[in-house]
Amino acid sequence: MDGLTILTFFSSFSFLFFGIGCFFSPRMKLEFMRYGLNKQQRWLTGALQLLGSIGLLLGLFISPFLSFISTIGLFVLMLLGLWVRIKIKDSVLQSSPALFYALLNLYLAFQYGALIFI
C-alpha cells in the first residue's frame, strides 16, 4: 500500500468518526455550542464530513477525481473550522487538529490533482 492510499484511509476514517460524532456524541454537541453553532450547523458539518469520507473511500476504487473533489471539500470544511476556532479565541493547541486536517486534505488534493490533470 502506497503513502497516498494510507493517508487517504487515515483522512477518510477520521472524518467518518468525526461525522458520526456530530450526530451522536454529547461531547460534540457541547463543542458546537461552545463554537456558537446550532444543531442544524452541527448536523450539516457531520453530513459533509460523512460525504467527504465516503467520497475519499469510493475514489480509491472508482476514480481519483472523486477523491480530488472530496479532499477539496474537506479542506474547505477544515478551513472554516479553523476560522471558527480563531474567532472564539481557541489556543493554538486547540486549533491544531483543524489546521492539521486542512493541510492533510490540501496535500491529498494536490496529489490527486496531479494524477488527474498531469
TrEMBL record:
<feature type="transmembrane region" description="Helical">
    <location>
        <begin position="44"/>
        <end position="62"/>
    </location>
</feature>
<feature type="transmembrane region" description="Helical">
    <location>
        <begin position="68"/>
        <end position="86"/>
    </location>
</feature>
<feature type="transmembrane region" description="Helical">
    <location>
        <begin position="6"/>
        <end position="24"/>
    </location>
</feature>
<keyword id="KW-0812">Transmembrane</keyword>
<protein>
    <submittedName>
        <fullName>DoxX family protein</fullName>
    </submittedName>
</protein>
<keyword id="KW-0472">Membrane</keyword>
<dbReference type="InterPro" id="IPR032808">
    <property type="entry name" value="DoxX"/>
</dbReference>
<keyword id="KW-1133">Transmembrane helix</keyword>
<feature type="transmembrane region" description="Helical">
    <location>
        <begin position="98"/>
        <end position="117"/>
    </location>
</feature>
<dbReference type="Pfam" id="PF13564">
    <property type="entry name" value="DoxX_2"/>
</dbReference>
